[in-house]
Design brief:
The chain has helices at 47-54, 74-91, 125-129, 137-149, and strands at 3-9, 19-20, 25-28, 59-62, 99-106, 109-117. A six-stranded antiparallel beta sheet has the order 2-3-4-1-5-6, covered by helices on one side. It is built from four helices and six strands, in the order E-E-E-H-E-H-E-E-H-H. Helices cover 28% and strands 22% of the residues. The longest helix is centred in the middle third of the chain and has 18 residues, at 74-91. It has one domain (3-146). By secondary structure, the protein is α+β, with helices and mostly antiparallel strands. Strand 5 (99-106) and strand 6 (109-117) form a beta hairpin.
Length: 155
């Protein structure tokens, strides 16, 4: 059985390269995200949104296997991914589909396991002019994500 990964698509033409952050978060391309893989999402999203999700080049990902162990439960994973999307929106308000997909990854193949669809995030004038490619996201993302997560519960 493969590992789980929570991912949300990033708006097209916003990112130029992959990024790796702390806490198992990254922006990267995913292998073989096709319409067939995400077909169960179709009833929950608009037709245009479904096509855009299937054609997304880069995804904001939470890989729980690369960070400190999280408490059990999908809700904790989805909460971490949701907070990462909020942090990304603070860094660069580009908007987002706000669809969070839990994939099971087996040998570079993806299988849809679960999903949550939230209200779409809209862009701003600054967001339309911005790009995450080279604007210093690597330097600020981890601190903003920590702030969005709230106070640490570790003693």
């Amino acid at each position: 059985m493969g590992a789980d990964l929570i991912a949300t698509p990033i708006e097209p033409n916003v990112i130029r390269r992959e990024h790796t952050f702390s806490a198992g978060l990254s922006i990267r391309r995913l292998p073989q995200v096709s319409k067939e893989v995400i077909e169960p999402l179709r009833p929950a999203v608009a037709p245009l949104t479904f096509d855009e999700i299937a054609n997304s080049r880069h995804w904001l990902c939470l890989d729980p296997n690369t960070q400190d162990p999280l408490p059990d439960g999908d809700q904790t994973l989805f909460s971490g991914a949701f907070n990462a999307a909020r942090a990304l929106q603070i860094v660069c308000p580009v908007g987002a589909k706000h669809v969070f997909v839990q994939f099971q990854v087996d040998s570079d193949k993806l299988r849809l396991k679960n999903a949550q669809v939230c209200s779409k995030l809209h862009t701003t004038l600054v967001g339309r002019a911005a790009s995450l490619g080279d604007n210093g996201i690597a330097e600020v993302f981890d601190q903003i994500y920590a702030g969005v997560q709230g106070p640490s519960t570790k003693a």
